[in-house]
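Protocol step 4 of 6: structure prediction from sequence.
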Amino acid sequence: MKISKKTVLNIVLILFILSFFVTPIGYYGKIWLNRLFAFSPSVIEEAEQQKITDYDWRLKDEEWNFFNFEESKGNVILINLWASWRLPSEAELASIQELYDKYKGKMDFYIITNEEQEPVEAFMEEHEFTFPVTYLIIGDKMAVDTSKVPSSYLIDKSGNIVIHEEGISDWSTKKVYKLLDELIAE
């Protein structure tokens, strides 16, 4: 019995597709595909930008200490809502790490999750992320909508929401860097 090249190619293709569902290759492949199709976030037209008027928002830092979002009033702020168990969040966090490495100390980062501390610390260590994690206090009032994960907000010094993205974005692009440089210089 002779097997044609077409049959062999079909079998290889089927095995490749199956590997996305039953092997670790598939997991990393899905991360890679999410990153591949994540584009730079879109800036909201100035006339359509909403403004944060109430900065009174309690959160917890990495040591589980309470602090207030009001500390960031007058600064450029990135808020990213994520969950360690959401594959798109993991895909996006790599670009946020690059952004953090480039802009830490120049703007404020709120990389917010509503998970417990222990699994988040394990996730951060496993992926070698060094940005500060902020913990959401469920039931408290919030400055932005935290119901959609992943999602992100970029807020200028005046409190205008310049970017609001639901889903993942690539935050490590020249377009984002140029916008941040402009917002920080204001």
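Step 5 (inspection) to follow. The mean pLDDT is 87.
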